[in-house]
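Q: Got a minute? One more chain.
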Amino acid sequence: MFIVWGTDTKKKNVTSVGPVVCQSCGSYGRYNIYKTYRVLTFFFFIPTFRWGTQYFAESTCCGALYALDKEIGKSVAANAAVQILPEHLTLIRSGVSQNVQSTQNTQNAQDTQVVKDIEMKKCGQCGTETSSESLFCPSCGAKF
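A: Always. Here it is, folded:
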């Protein structure tokens, strides 16, 4: 008997919540809520077991990414009326400001622009997001 199995990381969009004031840039926007989880598959496409479920909130105004408390994420996924508070969010990646923010220096005025902390790239084979410094996908091993 020959059994083929594997693991995969899945991403599922849950809902969109808002309007909210983004904790990263201070603008009005919405949070796109999604969850990720690992799954054990037979023959690479029949899911049998899930583990490692995490919930995330991504702001529409600047693209900031937050880890969302698991209990709050479950409530949002169940369509319960839940208010997402700043203490439910943990900043993972700050976003790019849509406007150029001005800062006044004591000697002269300069314009500065907020940029992303980490550049991400997506695997063309399995869709896993990883840092741009990686040469191979950490999920499926494909070369970028």
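A: Residues 5-95+112-131 form one domain.
Q: Perfect, thanks.
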